[in-house]
Known about the structure:
Elements: H1 3-13, H2 23-33, H3 39-46, E1 55-59, E2 68-71, E3 93-97, H4 104-119, H5 121-132, H6 136-153, H7 159-174, H8 189-203
Parallel strand pairs: 1-3
Antiparallel strand pairs: 2-3
Helix pairs in contact: 1-2, 3-4, 4-5, 4-7, 5-8, 6-7
Amino acid sequence: MPDDQTQIIDALKNPLGVPDTPPTDVINMLKQSYNVPTLMDQAKQQFPILNNYDIGYKYSEGRAPFMLESWGPGMTTSIPGVDRPSEFPNDKLGIEVFDPKTKPMDILGDVVSHHLVNTDPKIKDTYSNFTKSIEPWQEDILKEQYDYAKKSYGEDNDYEGWKKEAGLPAYFRGHPFQQWDKSENMYTPDQLKGLDSMMEYLRGSGNQ
Length: 208
């Protein structure tokens, strides 16, 4: 019997004891044993452009108080107490999902805003144009989001560092990846036009 199935059986035999295997790891092993598509599998099916990249994946429900984390190469810490999973090689991108409500679109959004903005020429150009077009009133929104991140998540980076690593990527994906409700008013018409064009490109598997 494979080792993972043995661990599953041992964990299920003693549900009231202290398990040797964390519950989320048991869930992951069950999904693998029964070939249940992971959220990453679903994202790759819906957005074939993701198949062009070697992306690690892990599901860790509740390990952090937000949706997911993109572990870029060399990134060691997300927020205090949440370190890079050992399953992700230090030189590769990995996506760790924390919230069971996360959707395939959310994975695409993180890969785009943290990785493709540096590697895909069209996405890189779209992101550059977006960041250069930020208006003063949008800067005020970013500062409010930074204050919230400090109070709610223990963000210890300075504003400019947070803005580069988290704030602007989140703003960039908020509307096109449907992560912000009623978000049209948070962007300029030219920004919306550029983001909509990017989504057409992504849905076309990046072959346009």
